[in-house]
Amino acid sequence: MFKNIVIVGTGYVGIPVAAMFADKGFNVVGINRTKEKVDLINKGLCPIEGDEPNLPELIDKVVKNKKLVATTDYSVCKTADAILICVETPFDSDKWEPKYDSLKSALKSVAENMSKNSLVIVESTIAPTTMETLVKPILENTSKMEAGKDFLLGNCPERVMPGKLLYNIENLSRVCGGINEETRERMLQLYSHIVKGELYPTDCITAEVVKTAENAYRDVEIAFANEVALICEKLGINVYEVRELVNKAPYRNMHLPGAGVGGHCLPKDSLLLSYGVKGILTPELMILARNLNKKMPSHTAGLLIDVMKEKGMDVKGKKIAVCGFAYLENSDDTRNTPSLGVINSLKEKGAIVEIHDPFVKSYEGLEIKKDFYSCVKDSDALVFVTAHSEYKNIDLNKIKGTMKTPIIIDGRNIFDKEEMIKRGFHYRGVGKG
Fold this sequence. Notes:
By secondary structure, the chain is an alpha/beta fold. The protein is built from 15 helices and 16 strands.
C-alpha cells in the first residue's frame, strides 16, 4: 500500500524518521528549504551534530542504497503515498500565539502538489484544534480536494529527543490521530514498519492534547524541582540530597532542577495547550510553572553576581566563560537554549562573555569556541549551563591555574561542592546552599 514517502522537514524529527522508513525499503524523499542541508544529506552525511547513536551510519547506508534522497522541490509530493510534515512550530510569547509560518508554507506547498488518495500526517507539535481550524482548511482550499474523501489526514505527534532520536522513534508508543477510521487504520499500517512500541488510534484533537499535555506536565515537574532548589539555597542545604531522599518514598519522582529549560517542546507546549482553549479557559498552574522555569537562567547569572559581590568584585568588565550553549548535553540543539538567558543577563551587567560548546558551530552571529582551555584562559568566572560529558572530565587544577579568579557557577550539578571548595574554587550551584 505504501511505497513512496515524502518527509517535509529534515531536522531532529524529519531526518531520523526518513532514514528509518528508507531502511525498511521505502522510497523516501526529504524536503528541506535549505540547499546546504539538502546537499549534505545527499552526500550521506548527518545534518545533526552531537552524539546521536547510529543515525550517521544509517543515513550513510540508506543514501548509498538510493532509498533516501533530499530536495527543495515539492513536486515529489505528486507520487507520494504518504506525506509526513515535520516542521518547527514555535510560540510567540509576545503576541501569545503560535508561529505557524513554516507549517502554513509547508501545507500550501504540499497541497499544490499532492495527488488523490495521499495520506498526509502532521508530526509537528500543534495547539489543540489546529488540525481542524488550520491544517485541514489550507489543504482543502489549496488542493480543491476534500479531506476524508479525496485524501486522508492525520496527526501523529513526534516523541523524539536529541541523543535518543532513533531509539525513541523505534521504542516509544505513538498516538495516531486521524479524521476517520480509514485514516487511523492506514496510519497504524504505516508506522508499524518503524515503531515497536504500541500504536494507539484516536481522533486528531485528542492526539493534539496528548502531545502538548505530556510536555506541559514535565515542565510543571521541572518547575517544582526548581522551586525546591531555590528554597534549598536559602536554607543552606543541597537540593540533590533532598531529591534523592524524597524519591525514596513510594510513588515520588522529583525531577532534576537546573539552570533552565530548553528545547523545542517544553518551553512552548504548555503555551500551545493553553492557546487551544483561548477565550474559553485560562490555565493557571502550567503558566506559573512556565514563568518560574523562564527565570532560572537569570537566577543562575545572579549566583555569579552574588558571589562576586561577596568577594568585593563587580561583574562589569570581567571576562566570564559560559560553558555549554546547546540546551541538552552532548547535543548541538540550541532551540530555546537557557544559555542565551544566562549570557544576556551577564551582558546587561557589563560582563565580557565568551562561549564554549564542543558541538555547536554557530548561533546568530555569536562566536562559539571549540577549545575549552583557550576559552577559559584568563577568565574571572566559569558558568556551566550544559552538562556536556567533556566538562565532567576537565582538569580542574589546570583551569584553576589559568583563570584570573577561580569562580565556578554550576547550573547542572556537574561538580561536588565540597570537592570544589577543597580545591580552592569559589563555588556556587543551583540548589546548593
